[in-house]
Specification:
Arc Repressor Mutant, subunit A; two-stranded antiparallel ribbon; mainly alpha; 108 residues
Length: 108
């Protein structure tokens, strides 16, 4: 299995954290709050769709709502394959950092 990119990892974690409320707006808001970066909806949806194609996310449509002009929300859920990819990436990160003390990069 290939390792996730940092961006893929962040997207999957955001979707996982949001559980049943993981659609574009909350995912974008969460990532913006965590990273402090401005994320465009275009980049977000392209990346989410790539993760769907890789089998790491499951995509489903909600019911159309009048507030959205009759359009439905597209919800995302982390698939079992996505959970495995997150675990592999988490294990890699842990192994890479293992043995390096927290104080190693603190500036005094």
């Amino acid at each position: 299995m290939d390792y996730l990119t940092r961006w893929e990892e962040m997207l999957l974690i955001a979707v996982y954290r949001l559980k049943g409320d993981a659609y574009g707006v909350p995912v974008k808001k969460h990532l913006t709050e965590v990273t402090g970066k401005i994320i465009s909806f275009g980049a977000l949806y392209v990346s989410l769709d790539k993760l769907v194609k890789k089998g790491f996310l499951i995509k489903s449509r909600g019911k159309p709502t009048p507030e959205r002009g009759g359009r439905s929300k597209i919800f995302y859920q982390v698939s079992p394959e996505g959970e495995k990819a997150l675990q592999v990436t988490r294990d890699l990160q842990k192994n890479l950092w293992d043995g390096i003390p927290d104080y190693a990069f603190k500036k005094e």
